[in-house]
Specification:
With about 350 residues, the chain is an alpha/beta fold. The chain contains 13 helices and 11 strands. An 8-stranded parallel sheet has the order 1-9-8-6-5-4-3-2. Strands 7-11-10 form a 3-stranded antiparallel sheet, with no helix packed on it. The protein is globular and about 60 Å long. Bound molecules: flavin mononucleotide. The site of flavin mononucleotide has 29 residues, from strand 7 and strand 9.
């Protein structure tokens, strides 16, 4: 069975799951056009995740993937929180507001309990993908028994080998160009390999199919990744400007006005690539302390962003984008897919 047949898709193009940007409309539009739509559900409650999956199933009969975070949950000590809160405190005070006194774990991991697993088993999407790590063995077994395909992001060969060993079906090779969070399993270590090199490295050393992700914006780049040995590609940033994404106007404007990106761990506590704004320019100073751990730092960043917006400053938003964001096109998702296919066929 070919890779496309395995996933039930016509074109080797996957919409990247994007927490905060994915919508059932966008997922269904991509799936209806012959790609694999997706829902980034890592930031959702079980109930809202269920609603998004059911809504997508109403909008398309074609397959789509759902995505969750598989980070190792860490205890966040009061001292580590305090150090980070104290460092950011002057910005809260600039807006005449007290800094928070403690930070919350705003996103549970798929591994913390089986609530998300049970939701997937109940709603049966074609595939489920994971970021930041690998699910527990019993969770992989249950997904396999239900015939649901599994994908996990790898950013280096060691992670890819661990994914293969765990019995996952597909490796997503996430290069350093990728927008959004680095899928690194260990948040303190990033090999920062380019997408092309990672595809070469993983296809040469692993047997599982590889999906290339990171900096892919047009059909020529897709063809290049397929020629390197990737079975398909996964595009995120390219779809953020589509009408059916939930990106707000400030985010859309930032992508067009200042299409320069940098990785920062200051927003969420884990490294992620986004448009350069106050976080990279004013918070990531040489003397900055270690951030509070993920996702506790994200709780603070969201509070600060909401406060800054109230004061007319949009510079604390998380405008995730890949390093090739300057090549973004303002197209409807179905037109973008058609354009990508056209460009692939022109080669
Ligand atoms: C706005 C945004 C949100 C993202 N959210 C997620 C997510 O929730 N889960 C995930 O596995 N990957 C997420 N990613 C990373 C993508 O899966 C993918 O690796 C990346 O988009 C590929 O690079 P590109 O943006 O240059 O196409 C996100 C990326 C972006 C741009």
């Amino acid at each position: 069975m070919s890779f496309a047949q395995q996933l039930g898709i016509k074109h080797p193009i996957l919409l990247a799951p994007m927490a905060g940007v994915s919508t059932p409309d966008l997922a269904a539009e991509v799936s209806n056009q012959g790609g694999l739509g997706s829902l980034g559900l890592g930031a959702n409650s079980v109930e809202s995740a269920r609603k998004q999956i059911l809504d997508t199933q109403v909008l398309t009969d074609h397959p789509f993937q759902v995505n969750f975070f598989c980070h190792k949950s860490v205890e966040s000590s009061a001292e580590s929180q305090q150090l980070w809160i104290d460092y950011i405190r002057p910005v809260f005070e600039k807006y005449n507001s007290p800094a928070p006194t403690e930070l919350k774990c705003i996103y549970p991991s798929f591994k913390d309990n089986d609530d998300f697993l049970n939701l997937v088993l109940e709603t049966k999407p074609k595939a489920v993908s994971f970021h930041f790590g690998i699910p527990h063995p019993h969770q992989i077994t249950k997904l396999k028994e239900a015939g649901i395909l599994t994908l996990v992001s790898a950013t280096n060969l060691a992670e890819a080998r661990a994914i293969e060993k765990a019995g996952i079906d597909i490796i997503i090779a996430q290069g350093i160009e990728a927008g959004g969070h680095r899928g690194i399993f260990n948040p303190t270590f990033d090999a920062a390999i380019t997408t092309a090199d990672l595809v070469r490295l993983i296809t040469q050393n692993c047997t599982l199919p590889v999906v290339a992700a990171g900096g892919i914006m047009n059909g020529q780049q897709i063809k290049y990744m397929l020629n390197l040995g990737a079975s398909a590609v996964q595009l995120g940033t390219a779809f953020v400007q589509c009408k059916t994404s939930s990106a707000n106007s400030t985010y859309r404007q930032a992508l067009l006005n200042q299409p320069i990106t940098q990785v920062t761990a200051s927003i969420s506590g884990r490294p992620a690539r986004g448009i350069i704004n106050h976080w990279q320019m004013e918070i990531d100073l040489p003397e900055r302390p270690k951030t509070a751990p993920y996702p506790y730092a994200y709780d603070l960043a969201k509070q600060l962003n909401a406060l800054a917006i109230k004061n007319g400053d949009v510079g604390y938003g998380a405008f995730w984008a890949g390093s090739n964001v300057a090549q973004i096109r303002e197209l409807e998702a179905r037109d973008l897919i058609n354009q990508l296919i056209l460009e692939m066929n022109q080669i």
